[in-house]
Amino acid sequence: MTELPNKLTAKLAKRQAGNALRKLPLPNGLIDFSSNDYLGFAQNETIFKNASSILEKRGITANGATGSRLLTGNKGLYGELEVLLADFFGSDSALVFNSGYDANIGFFSAVPQRTDIVFYDELSHASIRDGIGMGLAKSYKFKHNHLEVLGSHIDRVQERNVDSDIYVVTESVFSMDGDTPDLKSLAELCASKGVYLVVDEAHAVGVFGKRGEGLLNELALQDKVFARIVTFGKAMGCHGAAILGSHALKSYLVNFARSFIYTTGMPPHSLATILAACEHLPMSGGRQMQLRQNINFFKDQLKQHDLKPFFIPSNSAVHCCLVEGNEKVKKWSLRLQEKGYDVKPILSPTVPKGQERLRFCLHSFNTENEIEDVLLILANLFD
Length: 383
Ligand SMILES: Cc1ncc(COP(=O)(O)O)c(C=O)c1O
Hints:
The protein is 42% helix and 14% strand. The chain is built from 14 helices and twelve strands.
């Protein structure tokens, strides 16, 4: 086998020296405080069986899409799924992408034009930042969740760039912090300044909203945004994503989003699984309620154990305890794993240096005993 070039070997060595070398973990059978399967849908037998019967009922036996959706891959279930998604999320249209990563790079590389400007929250997901980096527009990050700072940035660029369209992008639940911007004020700010608001709802779908439609729906703000990105690999327990917006936006993306155009469509079984999960979600109020109870219980326990100051405030299923330094956070995560709890360390450079953290993902299926115990172990680590 040909050797890795020296420059790449050196980069790996540097990662190793910084205690930040990424490795693929094997399933460990521990109690799940780390997956994005917030409602247990990834393991749900009903969804699995319903996906199969969706295919059977329609006589679909194909294993693959056979091509890009623009060529041979736009098979039956796509149309049905996109109608259902638009209806479920309360949008004019929906366009399915192979993943949330693809949706974000497709959108941000294609929509903002050379003379346009994108403002993105400094903690935006890598897929948003990568998409912006692939596009031609100028971009500026703004301080995490700071709307005043954002407002003054917008004023400044609007004075100088009268012909620019301005886009603002944020997440309704931040993946590595679990927190949320003031979406109502943000929507008002964007409307008052005439700028386009885009919100990634990856970690809000299934967790917020009466039927799990996300936080924008819960706040009745779904019509105030230019586009929403929803993903199916987290609470929906399957895979893929959709961009929600107007019919014209959909048509634009079909024509210009390269991560949509130049890739094979999803296999029918994946589409059937998304359909089955979407149909199941409104019937899962019990699971959503259980998740909400667990989130509240977790927060109560943080107070009980005087852990609250170490955690980033969050109402979502993601709760992060700051533990500075890659070495220390890895050690603490290992301690929790030795006691049976799968809590992952989030290292720099995934998060800024000094803000390394233990990321607790809560689920409908976690028990109060598990939550009590894992936080007791954590509290003892602080002693
Ligand atoms: C906020 C956010 N957007 C997009 C993605 C990418 O979604 P997917 O896993 O479907 O590629 C993630 C995944 O972690 C995410 O956290």
